[in-house]
């Protein structure tokens, strides 16, 4: 009996799951249920896998066979994937599968390509096993291609739990809980044995390239809108819209069939009050561009997939709950609303519920990572989850926006992000969108966040409904664009958790990032072949500068306007999509690394800065195959007693200034910068040839000193010759560890003053805590010569006039300030001199009245001196007890006498000693309200009663005596 058959060919990443549930498989027809009963994998020298899928019903059978990528022609690749393969066999886990469907009746049952892709993606999805960190330890190991994870597990006594998501060669292992890192211990011992015994035979542990013991940590913070300092807004925004704009909005809603009840309140989509202050999207909707065929993943605290506003666009196959290890990343905590609101901004449906998303026909998925403790391994998997179908990852979270944190993703997460831009979307690259942060009111800056200053991220700041910069949105040189969010009395109106729930209070940069992600989804809807770098180019090139009176705009080398407050401007939906239609893909990425430039000089305080230049030549860039710049990063090391007092600026050969680091008044850290990488997009499009100058300043004059150790310049951009392009290697923990082993250069540093300019000036070193500084360098900040040495700049104001003798320091300040400083010093000297004279006179008077002065010799018995002085009663009793131990009076005692007004009796020494002896300690917590405070203890009451009965004078309280010790310890420490 003959059997009909048909072949579908397609490409998919294949990562074999341990198990697959029956209900997840597609149904071919009502009489044919297909289940996977056996899955096996094999990787051989040709780098392809084998998958077997056997029948579970008698009606049909699926069999999967595989061929290497080299066995398919370009024509098939174009038809299957939309474009030719860029690089043959670029991913060993990608195979071309020939799916053959057999039916015993000989009748062919049509199975759509979409269903086939769904099955393949399902089979390829990594099975995530719940982990018990209380009982077990977990390790991630990166193995070379020749090493079997099973053999490694056997050698180390571990349990192999499977591959780590989409990270090639990375596997996760489990072991019983131990205090130490058993993998690193075994690897270290193996290396020692190889060296000492001269072992040459290969061992499974020789194939371990990297290992990391996993630890649970707090999740990153959501970019929730902080409370604004000062008076709260008493009412919401209530301006009436312009009549013509209101009519236009109604016409658009009618033409598109939008009946969602709060659509008229969604000013960010169509602003009827401040005309033009919206994302300019409605014209695209009228063209039918609504986000179809695009998918946005919300990496957050979950998504309410049962909301009537989101359920139709929810993409379940690309979603997962990494906190509770379940397939549905739905909100489970009372504050799990953040992700649902962000999802509503992107893809809330046109369905008579709440409002609409900016790309209301796009698919939306979710990875829940912000609601519980999480490991770097799980976050890395989340950032790559289903990255062939999840095109854009919207991330409205990061390190604390407290003005003092300085945090970056761990090495596994860095690898995941690089893996995504190299391999996600079948080689086009995943698009990461990050919120810039909400810490501006605490002088925070997004260059202290390793996610927002990554070259793989599009960092998005916020503006309010009036187009103004809100109090919370962080500035930095890594910010590419801004878009609309809360401020000026209003916020974003969108979907909330619940079947039919809405909110009017979504805001912060948390709301700006998903709005931008939705706009990028519109662009992908018309040009799905855009790479991750194409999207950054389009965002930069079509952004609209705003508020030219604010934000300290400077003109870049390619004629664009750039501001550290607004990036290149606000996103215009219509402009970016229209530009995308005809956009020519950029060539692959290239990069240039300078050698480590060793400085090792003290950072001057005040209006001086230390400037170091490095010259980049045309030959250097030719050798690096770099044609034009996109991103610039600077990795640097410095030590300082208070990190928040340091600022760093980078001046390009085109005299464009990047404020890499700014002063932060809340940053009291003494750790300085330890291989920290700053990033700037201000130099986009420059050629890069010439001297790049870095200026490090310490504006505060105090005891906190600093040393500039070294720095490392990296230029990233487009290749000259695409045929010579190569992939960037995965980052390692040792990339910046040993500077001595890298070709290094010691460049003389110059101390420089940076002058003022009315606009676009170079960094003004006289400012100590204001991140907004002029941005065009003057002659006083000219970069160094072609040799790489930064020449001392001439001050545009000339040397300051001074009335001081030449041997006295001027402190680098103005004459008026010098008068204040030296006047204060004179007053202090006079005061101290007067105090010394007073003490000297008091001592002479006391010595004249001392009966001992009537004798020509030192008395041997102090009791006799007491008798001559007429000491008796209580005073005599006290002296009698302690006289033997006193001996000769000290200068400290005489100083006390001067303040005690003639009393030389140490009345309360004995009482205090008795009190602490009875307590058994020198410090006791005093219960509030119990009468045990100062003046109310029973012992002190008895002393006061005795004093009244004997007529004793009230005892003197001396600062620093034992009565103060408890009070001093109870004072709250300054934080």
From TrEMBL:
Quote the catalytic residue positions. 300, 338, 510
Q: Name one Pfam family in it.
A: P_proprotein
Q: Which residue windows does the record flag with biased composition (Basic and acidic residues)? A: 940-960
Subcellular localization is given as: Membrane
According to the entry, every stretch annotated as the P/Homo B domain falls at 586-721
Q: Where is the composition biased (Polar residues)?
A: 775-784
Provide the GO MF annotations for this entry. serine-type endopeptidase activity
Gene Ontology cellular-component annotations: Golgi membrane; trans-Golgi network
- What protein name applies here? KEX1 protease
Tell me the keywords, alphabetical order.
Calcium, Glycoprotein, Hydrolase, Membrane, Protease, Serine protease, Signal, Transmembrane, Transmembrane helix, Zymogen
What are the boundaries of the region Disordered? Answer: 748-800, 880-975
Q: Which InterPro entries match?
A: Galactose-bd-like_sf, Kexin/furin, P_dom, Peptidase_S8/S53_dom, Peptidase_S8/S53_dom_sf, Peptidase_S8_His-AS, Peptidase_S8_Ser-AS, Peptidase_S8_subtilisin-rel
Highest taxon in the source lineage: Eukaryota
Does the record carry Cell inner membrane as a key word?
A: no
What SUPFAM superfamilies does this protein map onto? Answer: Galactose-binding domain-like (SSF49785), Subtilisin-like (SSF52743)
Membrane spanning stretches: 819-842
The family classification in the record reads: Belongs to the peptidase S8 family. Furin subfamily.
Keyword Membrane among UniProt keywords:
yes
Give the compositionally biased regions (Acidic residues): 903-917, 961-975
- Biological process (GO), any one: peptide pheromone maturation
């Amino acid at each position: 009996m003959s059997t009909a058959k048909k072949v579908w060919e397609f490409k998919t990443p294949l990562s074999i799951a341990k198990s697959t549930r029956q209900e997840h498989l597609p149904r071919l027809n009502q009489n044919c249920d297909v289940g996977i009963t056996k899955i096996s994998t094999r990787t051989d020298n040709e780098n392809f896998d084998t998958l077997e899928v056997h029948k579970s019903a008698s009606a049909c059978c699926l069999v999967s066979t595989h061929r290497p990528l080299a066995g398919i022609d370009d024509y098939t690749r174009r038809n299957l994937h939309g474009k030719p393969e860029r690089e043959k066999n670029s991913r060993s886990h990608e195979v071309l599968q020939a799916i053959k469907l057999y039916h015993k009746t000989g009748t062919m049952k049509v199975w759509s390509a979409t269903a086939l892709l769904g099955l393949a993606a399902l089979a390829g999805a990594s099975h995530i096993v719940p982990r018990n960190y209380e009982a077990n330890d977990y390790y991630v190991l990166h193995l070379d291609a020749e090493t079997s994870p099973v053999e490694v597990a056997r050698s180390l006594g571990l349990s192999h739990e499977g591959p780590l998501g989409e990270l090639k060669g990375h596997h996760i292992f489990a072991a019983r809980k131990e205090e130490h890192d058993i993998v690193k211990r075994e690897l270290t011992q193996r290396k020692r044995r190889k060296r000492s015994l001269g072992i040459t035979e290969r061992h499974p542990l020789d194939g371990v390239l990297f290992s990391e013991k996993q630890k649970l940590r707090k999740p990153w913070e959501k970019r929730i809108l902080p409370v604004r300092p000062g008076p709260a807004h008493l009412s919401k925004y209530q301006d009436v819209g312009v009549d013509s704009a209101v009519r236009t909005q109604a016409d658009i809603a009618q033409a598109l069939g939008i009946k969602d009840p709060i659509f008229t309140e969604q000013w960010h989509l169509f602003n009827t009050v401040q005309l033009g202050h919206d994302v300019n999207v409605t014209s695209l909707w009228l063209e039918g561009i609504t986000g179809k065929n695009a998918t946005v993943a919300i990496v957050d605290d979950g998504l309410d997939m049962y909301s009537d506003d989101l359920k139709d666009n929810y993409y379940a196959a690309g979603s997962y709950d990494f906190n509770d290890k379940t397939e549905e990343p739905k909100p489970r905590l009372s504050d799990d609303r953040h992700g649902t609101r962000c999802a509503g901004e992107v893809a809330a449906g046109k369905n008579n519920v709440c409002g609409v998303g900016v790309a209301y026909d796009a698919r939306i998925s979710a990875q829940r990572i912000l609601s519980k403790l999480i490991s770097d391994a799980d976050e890395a998997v989340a950032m790559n989850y289903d990255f062939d179908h999840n095109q854009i990852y919207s991330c409205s979270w990061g390190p604390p926006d407290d003005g003092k944190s300085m945090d970056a993703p761990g090495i596994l997460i860095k690898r995941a992000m690089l893996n995504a831009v190299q391999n996600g979307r079948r080689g086009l690259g995943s698009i990461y969108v990050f919120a810039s942060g909400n810490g501006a009111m605490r002088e925070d800056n997004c260059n202290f966040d390793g996610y927002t200053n990554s070259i793989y991220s599009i960092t998005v700041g916020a503006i309010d409904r009036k187009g103004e910069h809100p109090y919370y949105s962080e500035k930095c040189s890594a910010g590419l664009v801004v878009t609309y969010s809360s401020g000026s009395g209003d916020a974003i109106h969108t979907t909330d958790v619940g079947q039919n729930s809405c909110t009017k209070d979504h805001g912060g940069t948390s709301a700006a990032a998903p709005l931008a992600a939705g706009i990028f989804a519109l662009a992908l809807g018309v040009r799905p072949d855009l790479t991750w770098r194409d999207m950054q180019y389009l965002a930069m090139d079509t952004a609209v500068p705003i508020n030219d009176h604010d934000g300290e705009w400077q003109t870049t080398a390619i004629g664009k306007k750039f501001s550290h407050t607004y990036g290149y401007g606000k996103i215009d939906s219509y402009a970016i999509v229209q530009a995308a239609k005809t956009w020519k893909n950029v060539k692959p990425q290239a990069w240039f690394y300078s050698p480590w430039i060793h400085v090792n000089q003290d950072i001057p305080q005040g209006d001086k800065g230390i400037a170091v230049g490095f010259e980049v030549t045309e030959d250097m860039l030719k050798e690096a195959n770099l044609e034009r710049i996109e991103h610039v990063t600077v990795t640097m090391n410095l030590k300082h007693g208070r990190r928040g007092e340091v600022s760093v600026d980078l001046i390009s050969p085109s005299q464009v200034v990047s404020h890499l680091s700014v002063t932060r008044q809340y940053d009291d850290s003494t750790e300085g910068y330890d291989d920290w990488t700053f990033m700037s997009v201000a130099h986009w499009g420059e050629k890069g040839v010439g001297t790049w100058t870095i200026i490090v300043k310490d504006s505060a004059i105090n005891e906190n000193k600093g040393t500039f150790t070294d720095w490392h310049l990296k230029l990233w951009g487009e290749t000259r010759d695409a045929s010579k392009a190569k992939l960037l290697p995965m980052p390692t923990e040792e990339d910046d560890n040993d500077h001595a082993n890298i070709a290094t250069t010691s460049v003389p540093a110059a101390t420089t003053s940076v002058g003022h300019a009315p606009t676009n000036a170079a960094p003004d070193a006289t400012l100590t805590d204001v991140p907004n500084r002029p941005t065009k360098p003057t002659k006083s900040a000219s970069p160094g010569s072609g040799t790489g040495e930064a020449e001392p700049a001439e001050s545009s104001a000339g040397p300051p006039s001074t009335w001081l003798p030449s041997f006295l320091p001027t402190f680098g300040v103005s004459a008026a300030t010098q008068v204040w400083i030296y006047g204060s010093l004179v007053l202090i000297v006079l005061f101290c001199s007067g105090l010394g004279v007073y003490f000297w006179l008091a001592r002479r008077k006391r010595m004249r009245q001392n009966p001992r002065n009537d004798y020509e010799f030192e008395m041997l018995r102090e009791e006799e001196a007491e008798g001559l002085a007429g000491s008796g009663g209580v005073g005599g009793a006290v002296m009698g007890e302690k006289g033997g131990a006193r001996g000769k009076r000290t200068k400290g005692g005489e100083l006390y006498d001067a303040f005690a007004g003639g009393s030389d009796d140490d009345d309360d020494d004995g009482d205090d000693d008795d009190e602490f002896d009875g307590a058994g300690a020198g410090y006791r917590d005093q219960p509030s309200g119990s009468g045990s405070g100062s003046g109310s203890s029973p012992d002190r009451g008895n002393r006061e009663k005795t004093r009244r009965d004997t007529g004793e004078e009230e005892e003197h309280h001396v600062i620093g005596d034992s009565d103060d010790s408890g009070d001093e310890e109870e004072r709250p420490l300054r934080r």
